[in-house]
Amino acid sequence: MRIGIIGTGVVGQTLGGKLISLGHRVTLGSRDKDNEKALAWAGQAGPDGHAGTFAEAAAFGELVINATGGTVSLEALRAAGAEHLSGKLLIDVSNPLVFGPDGGVSLDPVNTDSVGERIQREFPEARVVKALNTLNCALMVEPAKLTGEHNLFIAGNDAGAKAETVALLGEFGWPSEWIVDLGDIAGARATEMLMPFWLRMMGHFGDAEFNYSFRRAG
Amino acid sequence: MRIGIIGTGVVGQTLGGKLISLGHRVTLGSRDKDNEKALAWAGQAGPDGHAGTFAEAAAFGELVINATGGTVSLEALRAAGAEHLSGKLLIDVSNPLVFGPDGGVSLDPVNTDSVGERIQREFPEARVVKALNTLNCALMVEPAKLTGEHNLFIAGNDAGAKAETVALLGEFGWPSEWIVDLGDIAGARATEMLMPFWLRMMGHFGDAEFNYSFRRAG
What we know:
Two copies of one chain form a homodimer.
Chain A: E1 2-6, H1 10-21, E2 25-30, H2 36-45, E3 49-53, H3 54-60, E4 63-66, H4 73-80, E5 89-92, E6 97-99, E7 105-107, H5 115-122, E8 127-130, H6 137-140, E9 152-156, H7 159-172, E10 179-181, H8 187-192, H9 195-205, E11 210-216
Helix pairs in contact in A: 3-4
């Protein structure tokens, strides 16, 4: 499958590398065509890995992944172009972290809106699914690093798009029964708002090698 | 121990009943002295259960629990009186849920502040610990309802107050190693902001009989 990844950070690079290892073709998109990170990534990714602009990555992909920071995602997707997103599954992995001058972290948007919802509103022809924004990217692509069942969460308005997302996550190693459907795209608020808790738990554990699980009666 | 509970809802009543069963004495405090829910609760609670005003409950308690809704907690604690909270462990169980006209739920405060922090700022002589606001009250007092290890989270500025909280939770049945210290009282933001996720997970499970757990490597 041809996959366009918007964003050249460690999340985009990690997802891109995994997708290529699975036999997909990937274009990693950046603001500028000569982005050094993207070119370096493509240089070591082999013949199925390419670097390009946001628009080139989105045009290339039959499926598009937003791996930019949540505070700049809308701007990046505008540059990618609505015409290159229309009708496609758009997996939104972002969290809208705002780093304060005091080292504190907050979210924008939050509470009554989310990046996932904003993207779906601005690109109504895209089939947006919020996913993978609740854990470290090394775990996104290798869930077996952790022991026992642990969970991913998806949210979106299009049932078919969510099924396609579950299938792709299955290629990463996620059993479908570990993936919880939180409902419509407003569920993106719920998972984006986990970030302050996740950061405190990272402080507790001392590393990012953990994920959520649930206990039930009997 | 004498314990004052601010708030007469199901959370306050459930905690009060459990505390009495453990041998403590409890005054359940309400805005009005003739609150029917509090009087009915005291009527069936036995000789160790009393009903009173917010101020009477706070004055009674060697330890005080805030079990009011988070949007009215400050007002209730002002009525309880700073002089009745000074020097005491104040366990804040609240979540600041705001129910919108469309059935939607949001939080106020959120993101850059929390009820836990507001209480600590307004009552600097109280030793505030945020705790128990991440699960259903039936599970708060009976963790063995669920199978396997699952977690509670505490946050506060006073190490001694957190140790006292862990001891009390131990009486409820929580092993100390299941209780995660998230750090200072600003950690209350993290757990209060779990509520939208918790509500979506309740929708997924179809009931409130679940709690958070974590998976780690090897």
